[in-house]
Amino acid sequence: MQIPVVNRSRHPLPEYQTDHAAGLDLRAFLDAPVTLGPLERALIPTGLAVAIPVGFEGQVRPRSGLALRHGLALVNSPGTIDADYRGEIGVLLVNLSNVPFEVRDGERVGQLVIAKHETIAWQPTETLAPTGRGTGGYGSTGAG
Hints:
Layout lengths: L4 E3 L16 E4 L6 E3 L4 E5 L2 E3 L5 E6 L2 H7 L1 E3 L4 E3 L8 E6 L5 E3 L4 E9 L28
Antiparallel strand pairs: 1-5, 2-11, 3-10, 4-9, 6-8, 6-11, 7-9
């Protein structure tokens, strides 16, 4: 799939890090480092804008290594980039650790996955077909 991209950063375009990776690494595009204190969040710019085809979305996801080693997550994970959005991609990082973390220019701060999606039409009804689970909510399928 070909996706038009505008790169206003000084970094190379996002790349897959392995042959079978689903996500392309997004890099911070910063004039100066950004320090995230414990429980602080910041929108980290990437300098990238894309034109995602209709029927697809971009999903901005966290990087597992940053989560494991530094407690960094995305506030809205995954963040959705709609097919009609043409602005800069940002990564909304939050520091869930108890120590500050410095985000530097060029650092891989998230990943982008392009995924197909469906557009639905609601079918109003008074009842739904029964299932084994029924209306059981969180934890209703048992422990383990």
